């Protein structure tokens, strides 16, 4: 958001994102239906390109994932 503030003039971007950290969506452990639906939805937006498009719009495209994971893939 800071990158877009004041029409993109409020801040100067000095480089690419250095390291992308993992982010998640908290779901109650026994709510496997919601967990699976969220994973399926994230995988769908990755597959159709809309996920990358949004990340690129906000300057975070280098931090994209290529598939959703449950519990960090563990």
From TrEMBL:
Gene3D superfamilies: Periplasmic binding protein-like II. It comes from the Bacteria. This is Transporter substrate-binding domain-containing protein.
């Amino acid at each position: 958001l800071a990158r877009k503030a004041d029409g993109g003039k409020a801040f100067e971007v000095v480089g690419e994102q250095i390291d992308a950290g993992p982010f998640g969506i908290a779901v109650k452990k026994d709510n496997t239906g919601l967990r699976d639906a969220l994973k399926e939805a994230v995988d769908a937006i990755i597959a159709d390109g809309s996920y990358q498009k949004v990340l690129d719009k906000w300057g975070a495209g280098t931090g994209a994932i290529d598939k959703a994971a449950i519990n960090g893939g563990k």
